[in-house]
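User: I'm preparing a small set of examples for a lab meeting where we compare how different chains pack in three dimensions. I only have the primary sequence for this one, and I'd like the structure in token form so I can line it up with the others. Please keep the answer compact; I'll paste it straight into my notes.
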Amino acid sequence: MTTRPGLTAEREVARFEETGWTQALGLRTLLPNDPHRFLSRQGRRWWGRVETLGGELEKWLADKRFAGDVEVGLLFVPSVRVLDTRQPVEASIRRQQHPDLTRDVFDSRLDAGVDAVQDNAEGAFFVTCVGRYGVSAGSYQQIRAAEAVNFDVADNDIRAGMTRQLWGARVLQAGDAFLPDCEHNERWTFTLFAGDELIDGLAQSGTVLKSRVRFRLGKSNRGIGSARVAPAIFAGHL
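Assistant: Understood. Below is the structure token output for the 238-residue chain.
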């Protein structure tokens, strides 16, 4: 496994200064509260717990296939009242990320999806994969059928955060630095949403292909190397 620096307060505050939430005008004006400002104001107790969660998740990832591809950090997910990242995003916002991005592709059979943000909160933070790639953990069926102990990190079932909502937020948070699961990365991948339910026997997933962010359905037994997941742990509300 490639050694990567662990999650720290300094690194995450610096990261959020450069995210889409801060740099993309279309996103910044949507958010009633600035997640970068929130993080920069948190004390050692808050950050100590988050850093511990990051370390525990990295331990779980260490022996997984393609663990060296993964970067663990904080992900911000806005309330669906502010921006529903389970749904297609306006093309104008996508173009602020990358000029070559066009209208999202969204399978009409997709359901509303899981909402992981508390109703009265403006958003939530999760410790999860925040880079170009997730980790390989098998097919949707294998992940869902596994015993809970295999996906337990710090008393959290990390499958619960493997959702369309978190992936949609991850794509936006990346801003113009890179795009997760994109064909222009060194390796093309797609992220399985093992925390969301099957639809007509098909698994939900997301990828960026041919200049479009795509919310898709596919076979639930595909465990190929390009099928990745982003395990996540709730870290607190905004």
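A couple of notes for your slides: The first strand starts at residue 72 and ends at 78. The radius of gyration is 16 Å.

User: Perfect, thanks.
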